[in-house]
Each structure stands twice: as structure tokens, then as C-alpha cells.
Design goal:
Distance between the termini: 38 Å
Helix content: 25-40%
Order of helices and strands: EEEHHEEEEHEHEHEEEHEHH
Strand content: 15-25%
Largest sheet: 6 strands, parallel
Structural class: alpha/beta
Strand order of the largest sheet: 10-9-8-11-12-13
Radius of gyration: 20 Å
């Protein structure tokens, strides 16, 4: 098996997605605790192009200062098990799996410890499975674990139709909360289809001047200062959670959030946490229960992967 080949996009230096090189490389051989899986679908998220670019600088601290330590990037994967190591207990060849990988998804095969995979439900397509880990995981961590949304609460979701936002809208609605979505004119109908009770078109209305009060705000865009939202937070107790946004605003918000939450009941937090196997299994259960599904906007062939990253930028 060691002499067999596969194609992979190699990132030898940080820069433009157009600089990724599609090469034929050695197909990995699974170690005792590893699973070799053939890719059926992968998904792209903002985090992928940040790693390709090496921007912001913290990315280089995480993945390699001068160049990526692992030239095969990519996180979200779905595929079929091709081979397993001698110590693997939970998987066998032919099993359909998905996972959030510690890099390595931008290839025809990936070889990772079995702890990075979970079994894919038969009712879920490979496309749907690949779209779950990063975006769905962030949404579930945000709504359930970090803000602990409860039935009957009023929840505002900014960027409600984006990758993470579309999952937030569905998951929060499934928890019994009243969902107000903020999105662009072109996405108003989509927000309603995702389950939003109210929709604000940010091109026509300023939610911060609405006079409403929310128990939880999930911000997927950071299109304005996080401080602007304090005027629409429930003074009796509420939480604003920043999930993602432009780096020039994200890091000032990260530094500011602990201080603006002191001595009051309006808490401002930053989302953190990786979608490990337990999170992925919970997402699969939500999918099977019909409570959420991925909103896939664009599809690319494997060879078009750099184009997909450029589109995300």
C-alpha cells in the first residue's frame, strides 16, 4: 500500500489559494490506531482560507511560522473507510464516516487517528456530512454550551444565513427560542425557511434602533462594534456571543469583552471550542431528528478547490 498514490493540494507557503499545488503524492498507510479514508466530499470555511493565507498572525503560531508544518490543509471531511490499523476497534473498511480533522482534508485520502472520525448516518449524504463539522459545530457550541439558550428566550442571530449562522438559526429554533434573524435583502426568504420568527433586512433597518431587548445575541459577522448591541440586550440578564468576523475588529473585541462584562448583567463573550466527536454525534442526532440540515450554497469539483477558497474570501 505504501507505493500507492493519491492527489492532494499542497500548501508549501502561505499566500493566495491560487498558489496551492495539486500534486500526486504517496498515499499514507494507517498506523495501529489510525483510519485511512477515501474522500467523498469536503467542505470549505473561512478558517480554511485564513490558514492558506497565514492571516492573522496567530494562524502561523498554530500551524507553522514560516510555512505550514503540514502542507495538506483542510478540516471538514466525509468519506469511506479504506483501511484501518491493527488497534482500531470502532471502524472497518467500507464504513461511511465524517470528521473535523487536524488538517489533511485537501486530498483524495486522509489518514488520521480513529478518534477524529464518527460514523455518518445513512440518511445523511456525504455533502451534508462534510458541511457539518466546522460550521455546525460552532453553532451548537455557541447556542447550547456557551450561551445555554432556553425555550422562550428571545435570540438575535446576526448573519443568520451564512455558514455558521444558518445552523444557529435552525438549532436555536429547535431549542424553543424566539428567533430574530438579521440578514441581507437577498436572504430574507432563506431566513424564514430556516425557521426565523422575525427577519430584519440590515440594508433597510437598523436592529440596534428597533427598541427590542434580547436575551441572547449570536453575532456571526461583527459588522459593527460589539458595544452597539448593548442597547438591545436585556438589562435583567443577557449574553452577546461573538462567533466570527473581520480580523481587524475581532481581536479588539477579544481584548475588550472581559472588561465590558464587569459589574453588569450584560455579558459579552467570544466563541471558542473545537467540534470533537461528541459534538459531531450530537449534530448527527439533530439532523436525523429533522431539526437542522446544512444550507449548501455552492459546489465545486476537487480540482476547483482553490476557486472555492477564493470565493470565500
Amino acid at each position: 500500500m505504501g507505493s500507492e498514490k493519491m492527489r492532494a493540494f499542497m500548501c508549501y507557503q502561505y499566500g493566495s489559494p491560487a498558489d496551492l499545488v495539486l500534486e500526486e503524492v504517496e498515499r499514507p498507510v494507517p498506523k495501529a490506531d489510525e483510519v485511512l479514508a477515501k474522500a467523498e466530499s469536503i467542505s470549505l470555511n473561512a478558517g480554511d482560507w485564513h490558514v492558506v493565507r497565514g492571516d492573522p498572525f496567530v494562524v502561523k503560531l498554530m500551524f507553522g511560522l514560516g510555512k505550514p508544518r503540514d502542507p495538506i490543509l483542510g478540516f471538514d471531511f466525509a468519506g469511506r473507510v479504506a483501511a484501518v490499523g491493527s488497534d482500531v476497534k470502532d471502524f472497518k473498511p467500507g464504513d461511511e464516516v465524517f470528521g473535523y480533522l487536524n488538517l489533511g482534508a485537501f486530498a483524495e485520502y486522509t489518514c488520521k487517528p480513529e478518534t477524529e472520525f464518527v460514523k455518518k448516518p445513512s440518511s445523511m449524504s456525504f455533502e451534508q456530512a462534510a458541511a457539518l463539522p466546522t460550521a455546525g459545530g460552532a453553532a451548537l457550541i455557541a447556542a447550547r454550551d456557551l450561551t445555554q439558550v432556553k425555550a422562550g428566550q428571545k435570540v438575535l442571530i446576526i448573519g443568520a444565513c451564512g455558514g455558521v449562522g444558518s445552523f444557529c438559526t435552525q438549532i436555536v429554533k429547535s431549542m424553543g427560542a424566539h428567533v430574530t434573524a438579521v440578514c441581507s435583502t437577498s436572504n430574507v426568504n432563506m431566513a424564514k425557511e430556516l425557521g426565523a420568527d422575525e427577519v430584519f433586512d440590515y440594508k433597510k433597518e437598523d436592529i440596534c434602533k428597533s427598541g427590542k431587548a434580547f436575551d441572547v445575541i449570536l453575532d456571526n459577522g461583527l459588522f459593527r462594534s460589539m458595544l452597539d448591541y448593548r442597547q438591545i440586550m436585556n438589562p435583567a440578564g443577557s449574553t452577546y456571543l461573538l462567533i466570527g468576523g473581520a480580523t481587524n475588529r475581532f481581536f479588539p473585541a477579544l481584548a475588550m469583552s472581559p472588561f465590558v462584562s464587569m459589574f453588569n448583567k450584560k455579558k459579552m463573550k467570544i466563541c471558542s471550542g473545537d467540534p470533537g466527536p461528541a459534538i459531531l454525534k450530537d449534530l448527527a442526532e439533530l439532523f436525523e431528528a429533522g431539526k437542522m440540515k446544512p444550507a449548501i450554497k455552492k459546489r465545486y469539483t476537487f480540482e476547483q478547490l482553490p476557486e472555492g477558497l477564493i470565493y470565500l474570501e
